[in-house]
Write a structure and sequence with these properties.
The protein is of the alpha/beta class. The protein has two domains: 70 residues, Arc Repressor Mutant, subunit A (Orthogonal Bundle), CATH 1.10.10; 113 residues, 3-Layer(aba) Sandwich (Rossmann fold). The protein is 43% helix and 18% strand. The protein has a seven-stranded mixed β-sheet, sandwiched between helices. It has a two-stranded antiparallel ribbon with strand order 1-2. The protein is globular.
Length: 217
């Protein structure tokens, strides 16, 4: 079980993010309180897991009425969010990069995609979904000028390894890698390798096993 530097397990951080999105949706619908078993049911886990996650971050509450939705949103936000907004860059503005940018911007006030990079002359020096796109030759300079902390890598897989050194040199602190090539960085740079192909194959395998089990019953 991997731990984030503050000692909270990575999986707990992921669940806290999911809880917050659910709580925000509840808040918009006028729901003021929610029980742990309801929150658990929405996320397909146990109420014990929800309570354990919240205890891990120091949250305690009178649960006779359930958790106060607004209070819990604020508490989780204090754990997950930086004090100041975090600027993000996207490397590779193909279909995936543009889809990520379009989906993500506006979702969080603390995390914002502010610049993009590509090598395609048709994209460089243009604005894509209001995000300025620069040539990779300017990467280090633009990153430092715009105080970029995180990059999302959605470039072609074959060029992804070439991005490791520029990312290190630019002082990037976190990387979300959407290519199928695993990228490794030195200690001090957190990387999340998100391989869509592997995840789809995992889902396909589970579907296959489920169908075979049903056929055998």
């Amino acid at each position: 079980m991997a731990l984030i530097p503050n000692g909270i397990p990575e999986k707990t951080i992921e669940r806290l993010s999911e809880y917050r999105r659910t709580l925000l949706a509840c808040h918009r619908e006028g729901i003021t309180h929610i029980f742990s078993h309801v929150l658990a049911g929405i996320h397909g886990i146990t109420a014990v897991q929800v309570r354990r996650d919240l205890m891990l971050i120091g949250f305690s509450s009178d649960t006779k009425k359930g958790y106060d939705v607004k209070v819990l949103i604020d508490f989780i936000s204090n754990i997950l969010d930086s004090e100041n907004p975090v600027n993000i860059a996207v490397i590779g503005m193909g279909h995936l990069g543009q889809a990520i940018t379009k989906y993500f911007n506006g979702k969080s006030l603390k995390l914002r995609i502010t610049v993009a990079f590509d090598v395609d002359p048709a994209k460089v020096d243009t604005a894509i979904d209001n995000i300025p796109c620069y040539h990779m030759e300017c990467f280090e300079k633009v990153v430092q000028e715009n105080d970029i902390s995180i990059v999302i890598v959605s470039s072609p897989t074959k060029v992804a390894p070439e991005l490791v050194v520029p990312i290190i040199n630019a002082g990037i602190k976190g990387v979300l890698n959407f290519t199928s090539t695993r990228l490794n960085f030195p200690q001090g740079i957190y990387v999340e390798n998100y391989d869509i192909t592997t995840l789809l194959e995992k889902v396909a395998y589970c579907v296959k096993e489920s169908e075979e089990n049903n056929d055998n019953n």
